[in-house]
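Render this sequence as a predicted structure.
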Amino acid sequence: MLAPASEERFGMKILVHFEFDDKQIDAMTRLVRSHGDHQLVRVKEEEEAVREAADAEVLLGRFMPTVCAAAPNLRWIQSFSAGMDKLLFPEIIERDVVITNMAGLYAPQGGEHAWALLLALSRGIAAAAESKQERRWGGGKVVELTGGTLGIVGLGGFGLETTKRAQGYDMTIIAVDPVRTDPPDGVSEV
């Protein structure tokens, strides 16, 4: 069970702002307490997070600049997303705070989803479904992917996984990436 915020403690205060159910929170609490006298506090609203942040050292989940500004003892933020763009605001960048994310965790699903959307687009699935509802047949344009060229914007986890799927279609793959300059396997040009 979660400790009340007012409870005296000696370890770290870990603030959780994410949609975990009670069973997940209980498991996290047991894990945290097995490593010391730490306190896990779940918040649901931004105002509550701002209040509880005053003595928090760790933030897990989603946090806005107001929450980070209210956390003078903050040492670590664990984001549950792959992207970091929403955490790079002055209240964090100007401080010595470690930020970790879930990069790569969702990459296979992201690559599969991107590929599914590309297949649907190239086959005109949405237009065909609409035509069927209107009892109109034929006429949709189909684009063949095999042997074509695919442009990838960003060679992070999603981009690399999408690249793997394109290789199965013998596509020429070109990419742009703000960091990477050497093409990974299967990419012709960066």
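Summary. The beta strands are 13-17, 39-42, 58-61, 76-78, 98-100, 149-153, 172-176. Helices lie at 22-33, 46-52, 65-69, 90-93, 107-123, 125-133, 157-167.
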